[in-house]
Design a protein that fits this description.
alpha/beta, 9 helices, Rossmann fold, globular
Length: 196
């Protein structure tokens, strides 16, 4: 249940938003994010990588968002928009979380091989904010490739949210935790408010 700033929900109420779910253990947190967005009256579109579907089923997000989930670039959730462009033109924000080391690398090298990277590649980031919420093991977070890709992502117009620090699924403590669901919702609200 959302316990953050109620003003954030008011900013998001009635908005058309997209959530791209990457393949990390923190994908389970995205169920709370999608539920909060749906309860705030958002038209919420969920896209998942193949790896994300190994952690949380599309059915979970379909039930929470109240609409079909985009799981393949070949099988469209919206038959009237087979090229995904309409969604890219009409969403008011895209949150990609968890943004794994692999997913980050794909985004900064312009790959568009799954619904998440394809939508991100189709959005004009000068108009529509695309937030990346990195989530990975502390060692992966500190890798030179990750730090280089984070700098490139920001240079390319992505907005990178700082990860949290704490207990990780690999039984270590450190930086790289996905921010909590309330924090992600509030980050989306701030970005949407700035867009107006």
């Amino acid at each position: 249940m959302y316990s953050g700033d109620p003003a954030a929900l008011e900013v998001l109420r009635g908005r058309r938003v997209a959530v791209g779910v990457g393949g990390g253990i923190a994908a389970y947190k995205m169920a709370a994010v999608v539920s909060t967005l749906a309860q705030a009256g958002c038209e919420t579109h969920v896209l998942m990588t193949e790896a994300a579907q190994r952690f949380v089923t599309p059915l979970t997000f379909e039930a929470l968002a109240g609409r079909a989930v985009h799981t393949s670039v070949w099988e469209q959730a919206d038959r009237s928009d087979p090229q995904h462009i309409r969604l890219a033109r009409t969403v008011e924000i895209l949150l990609i979380a968890p943004c794994t080391m692999d997913l980050l690398a794909k985004l900064v090298t312009g790959q568009a091989e799954d619904p998440v990277t394809l939508l991100a590649a189709s959005i004009d980031r000068a108009i529509t904010p695309v937030l990346l919420a990195p989530s990975m093991n502390e060692v992966m977070w500190h890798q030179p490739a990750t730090q280089r890709n984070l700098r490139q992502a920001e240079a390319d117009g992505f907005r990178v949210l700082a990860p949290g620090s704490g207990w990780q699924a690999c039984r270590t403590v450190g930086a790289g935790r996905l921010p909590e669901p309330d924090q992600l919702v509030e980050a989306m609200a701030r970005a949407v408010a700035e867009r107006r």
